[in-house]
Amino acid sequence: MIEPTSDEPPRILVIRGGAIGDFVLTLPVLAAMRERFPQADIEVLGYPRIASLALSGGLAKAVHALESPGLAMFFAKGGSFDPEWREFFGQFAIVISYLFDPDGIFETNVMSCGPGQFIAAQHRPDEAKPIHASDVFLKSLEQLTIFDGDPVARLELPGLAKRKNCLALHPGSGSETKNWPEQNWGRLVAHLLAHSPLNLLLVGGEAEGERLQRLAKRLPGDRVEIAQHIPLPDLAPRLANCVGYIGHDSGVTHLASALGLPTLVLWGPSNETVWRPLGEKVRVLNQHRELAALPLETVLEGINALELEQG
């Protein structure tokens, strides 16, 4: 339990690596701790390009870079630690780590720096158990008498403008096995432009390569916009201003869901029970691992059922 020992607010550190989806599914941990310890300063040690989402949503006060060279020796036995990092860890009342640390080397080294409490959290769900990832990540907070954390990832951004008449599409993911065929996305884009008043925001990163350019080729530039290689803190408000989102099992899909967008997920071979985005506005189309067999008509029915929030 946090016991204040000075006029300074107590500090809590959450250590979280992984990809975008892993971090978004850990947002409920930050929210639960902020509710349980409203006077504490919650900080994140992770990848700033991803963890900065917690700053945007007011869930963390600071983000520190997990890839900092001075941290390397904390993963080795009997390491000689950087004095600044030793002092850094010693300032926290609670450190909760979601790093893979099977031998407890990182835990032992961090504890030698003098934090008040170290919680070694489960870094990844056991997919043999039908328990959602967010519930797995929240389980470790029971050591802090937090038993009722909301497993739905929520990211509320301040100062958003009125929603645009725009539908966000993310036609890729980190694995081709999770993707609906590109030609199907082409048919979907053409249908939406021909039969709806919606403009389209095509979202992608390195994994999409030239897919977005191919999909947007010969389409009206006043109705189709490409957002590729956009930093997450900049992408998040652009997504949040859309009326809805369609994508695969990807980190961007988890982000869209956390932003509260009506979200349609074209789900591939991943374990839906464990990894699907949660939320009242999320619909999942699962073709029993054969995503290529998902017909356009079914996707259009799913879009019609989303109740797009046009502003």
Structure explained in plain terms:
The protein has 311 residues and is an alpha/beta fold. It has two domains: 11-144, Glycogen Phosphorylase B (Rossmann fold, 3-Layer(aba) Sandwich); 166-304, Rossmann fold, CATH 3.40.50. The chain is built from twelve helices and eleven strands. The strands form two sheets. Strands 8-7-6-9-10-11 form a six-stranded parallel β-sheet, sandwiched between helices. The longest helix has 14 residues, at 182-195. The termini are far apart. 38% of the residues are buried.
Low-confidence stretches: none
Tell me the distance between the termini.
Answer: 45 Å
Q: What is the mean pLDDT?
A: 92
Under the CATH scheme, the architecture of the largest domain is: 3-Layer(aba) Sandwich
CATH superfamily of the largest domain: Glycogen Phosphorylase B
Number of strands: 11
Q: How much of the residues is beta strand, in percent?
A: 15-25%
Radius of gyration: 21 Å
CATH topology of the largest domain: Rossmann fold
Estimate the global geometry from the Cα principal axes: elongated
Key attributes of the depicted protein:
Rossmann fold; 311 residues; 2 domains; elongated; 17% strand; alpha/beta
